[in-house]
Each structure stands twice: as C-alpha cells, then as structure tokens.
C-alpha cells in the first residue's frame, strides 16, 4: 500500500487555521495601503479582543479632522497677521505720501507763465478792473459789469458818475460817486439795492453781509449813516468838524453791526487823530449815539481802518499799526506796533494786513511786512519790482505790474518770478496756485504756471 504522509493539525484555538489567519492579516494590511495609509493596521484587529487589556486608540478619521482644525486655525491666525502687517505698511506709505505732497507744494517753484485767451471782454474807456471775490469787476464813469473768469457776464448796470469809488468785502461790493449822492450795492450774482443821499458822499464801506456805512460831508458837519442789506437807513449820527474833526476813513464789520470812524482834528496847533467805535446792535443801544469806544492819538494821521472779522479791527497811521479787540461791546487796544520806517502802502485780506516800506538796506526796493489778526508779525517779503498791485490771498502774496509777476508765501519764500507776453490789467488768483485768471487788453485770459 502506498504510504500516506500525515500533516499535523493547524487549527488554532478559535477554530481558524493559522494559514487563514495569516491571509486575513495580509488582507487588512493591503487594505490599509490602498487607502493611502502606509502604517500598519491597528493592532486591535490582529490581537484577540477577548482579553480586554488593549488600550483604547483614537480612530484615524477623528485624528485627521483634529489636525485639519489646527491647520485651519493656524491659517486664520497667519492671515490676520498678514492683514495687520499690510495695514501698518499701508499707513506708513500714506504718511510718507502726505509728507512728500506737503513738501512738494511747500517748496515748489514755477519758472514760466503761459497765457491763453478765454473770451473777449471789451474795456470801457477810463474803466478800472479789480478782483471781486474771484470774479472780474469793471467799473467806470458810465457803468459797471461783473463776469466770472470764463468771461460769462453776471450782471451789468449803467449810471453816470464823475469819480466812482468802490468798496468790497467778500462777495459784496459798493460803488459810489465821490462828491455825488448815489451808492450801488451788488453781490457777485446780482445788483442788490441803490441808495440816494441828499448830502455829498466822502467815503463808503460795505460789509460781507451787505450793509453799507457812508460818510457824508457838507461844509461844517459830517453824517455817518448805516444802511441795511435791503438799503434802508438803520442809524445815523452827526459829527461837528470843529469838535470831532474831519472824517478820514470808515469801516464796517462783517456782520454789519460795528462801525469804526477815523477822524483828523486840528487842536492847539497840534494834529490829533481819533478812532471812534460804534455798535448798532443790541449791545450798543444803551450808549450815547451808540459810541462804545474812543481813542485819541497826537501828531498822527490814521487814513486807514479795517475790520478783520467781527472780533478785530486794524488801524494804520504813518507811525504805528494798532489792532483792537472788538469781541466785546467796548473795544480794547490789544496791540501796538510802532513803525520806524516810512509807510508806502497798506494791503489787506480778511485775515492779514500788509504794510509796505521802502527797503532801507538797499538789498531790495521794497519790503512788505505781514501781520495777523492778533497784530503779530507773520513774515516779510523783499522785492525789487516796481509794483502796480499787491494782493494777499490765503497764504500767498501776488505782486504784479503790467508785464511781470512775483508770487511769495506769507513767510517770504519765492514761488514764481517771471514776465508776461502781453499787458495785464489785473490778476485774479484762483484756488489752484498754478492756474490764475487775468484781464488784459479787451480779453479775459488764463495763466498757467509751469
């Protein structure tokens, strides 16, 4: 008989042969590899679970989810950090840009002026052109016109005057016939009203709100009359030339309530100037003839007074600049600056007053000293041009004649110094320093600074 070789029994304790057990292990191992997990399968699948001694393990899916959560939070943190850095960087760039812009505009210098015609603007014979709140005001013996800097007419009036005089404040202007009896009051938009007086006109002053103060003189007396923005007489008072002197100038505050009159009196072989302040508002009702202040100066002449806002009034004589605080009912002398040089001219804006002197150092022909509302000196400009006009606009000073122009900052830095290729009657500064308007012969022009 053939011999049959017997193999030992390979059945394990659980009734599963060892070969089957090995095959199961390989299947689990291969399954883990197919899922992309290069690690060995969990030992709990290979070891008997009946002992209950194997430690509990976190499922692979939950562990991966927790890792993903940590990664997501890190990404948010890094993103926020990047945003914070970008914001800081952007703020630094913005500050640098602002500083560079300020530096550019505070140190910029222009080298030439290009003039281009905008529109015809016929000039009346004997007429005067002035800058009227950024518009062109042309007035003469037979009438007045107002146009914008593009040449568009705003209004036109006709009259007959032997010697027209003008006062301007903000967007209001008043034109009167010196020695005559007519006053015309306009804004840049339209004619507002006309006043007719029975006594010859000597001086006028218009306020920003449209009131007009007028000095009227006859042979022995003077009348100071105040008219409302509708042209009605608000108040008047009479001054004797023997007692009060001859009126030199008058100024009215922007709100139309306060009036300052400068007068010159000969007394005991001395020249005496007096500055009288009047308040026609509620605060001045309890004062005689509404006079709330009186100041006297010996051997001085004050041909110029001007309100600089409602809270300050400046007066200039041949030997001093004085500023009064008018914020209260009774004005107070807040600043005195004695002048040691010969005063050649006075130029003012709403915020500053400029005093022009001959330059005694001979380095320049003139120097213009600029003072603020508080009377403190803000700067000085020396120049050699034989000027035709000086305008203080904002923080800049424009000096020109028919063929040349110089522009300075208030503190004296030169911005432009050059000439024109045509005769310019008046300059009209605009909000843009590099762009100005001008009136030349029978036309309105644009001036571009380069």
Count, helices: 2
* Beta-strand percent range: over 45%
Instruction: Provide the CATH superfamily of one domain.
Output: YVTN repeat-like/Quinoprotein amine dehydrogenase
Q: Stretches where pLDDT falls below 50 for ≥5 residues?
A: 1-21, 32-56
- Please give the largest β-sheet: 4 strands, antiparallel
CATH class of one domain: Mainly Beta
* CATH fold call of one domain: Methylamine Dehydrogenase, Chain H
Give a verbal description of the structure.
There is one protein chain. This protein is mainly beta and about 450 residues long. The protein is about 15% helix and about 45% strand. It is built from two helices and 32 strands. It has helices at about 20-35, 60-105, and strands spanning about 115-120, 130, 135-140, 145, 155-160, 165-170, 170-175, 180-185, 190-195, 200-205, 210-215, 220-225, 235-240, 245-250, 260-265, 270-280, 290-300, 305, 310-315, 320-325, 330-340, 345-350, 355-360, 365-370, 375-385, 390-395, 395-400, 405-410, 415-420, 425-430, 435-440, 445-450. The chain is globular and about 100 Å long. The model is unreliable at about 1-20 and about 30-55 (pLDDT under 50).
């Amino acid at each position: 008989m053939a011999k049959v070789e017997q193999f030992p029994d390979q059945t394990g304790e659980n009734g599963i042969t060892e070969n089957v057990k090995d095959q199961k292990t390989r299947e689990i191992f291969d399954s883990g590899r197919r899922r992309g997990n290069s690690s060995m399968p969990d030992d709990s699948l290979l070891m008997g679970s009946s002992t209950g001694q194997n430690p509990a393990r976190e499922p692979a899916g939950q562990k991966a989810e927790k890792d993903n959560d940590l990664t997501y939070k890190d990404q948010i943190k890094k993103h926020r950090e990047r945003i914070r850095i970008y914001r800081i960087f952007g703020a630094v760039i913005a500050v640098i840009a602002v500083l560079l812009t300020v530096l550019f505009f505070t140190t910029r210098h222009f080298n030439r002026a290009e003039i281009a015609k905008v529109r015809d603007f016929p000039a009346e014979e004997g007429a005067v052109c002035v800058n009227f709140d950024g518009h062109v005001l042309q007035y003469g013996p037979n009438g007045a016109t107002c146009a914008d800097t593009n040449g568009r007419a705003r209004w036109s009036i006709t009259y007959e005057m032997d010697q027209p005089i003008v006062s301007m404040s903000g967007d209001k202007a008043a034109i009167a016939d010196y020695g005559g009896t007519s006053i015309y009051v306009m804004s840049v938009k339209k004619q507002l009203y006309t006043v007719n007086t029975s006594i010859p006109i000597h001086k006028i002053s218009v306020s920003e709100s449209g009131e007009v103060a007028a000095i009227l003189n006859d042979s022995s007396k003077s009348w100071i009359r105040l008219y409302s923005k509708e042209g009605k007489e608000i108040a008047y008072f009479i001054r004797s030339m023997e007692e009060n002197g001859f009126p030199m100038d008058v100024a009215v505050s922007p709100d139309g309530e306060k009036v300052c009159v400068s007068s010159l009196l000969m007394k005991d072989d001395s020249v005496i100037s007096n500055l009288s302040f009047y308040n026609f508002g509620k605060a001045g009702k309890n004062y005689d003839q509404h006079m709330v202040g009186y100041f006297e100066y010996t051997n001085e002449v004050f041909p110029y007074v001007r309100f600089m806002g409602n809270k300050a009034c400046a007066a200039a004589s041949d030997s001093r600049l004085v500023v009064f605080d008018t914020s209260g009912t009774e004005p107070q002398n807040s600043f005195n600056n004695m002048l040691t040089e010969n005063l050649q001219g006075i130029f003012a804006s709403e915020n500053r007053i400029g005093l022009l002197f001959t330059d005694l150092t001979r380095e320049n022909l003139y120097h213009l000293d600029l003072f603020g509302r508080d009377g403190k000196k803000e700067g000085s400009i020396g120049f050699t041009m034989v000027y035709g006009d000086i305008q203080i606009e904002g923080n800049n000073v424009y000096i020109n004649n028919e063929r040349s122009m110089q522009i300075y900052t208030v503190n004296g830095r030169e911005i432009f110094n050059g000439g024109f290729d045509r005769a310019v009657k008046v300059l009209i500064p605009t909000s843009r320093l590099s762009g100005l308007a001008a009136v030349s012969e029978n036309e309105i022009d644009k001036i571009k600074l380069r």
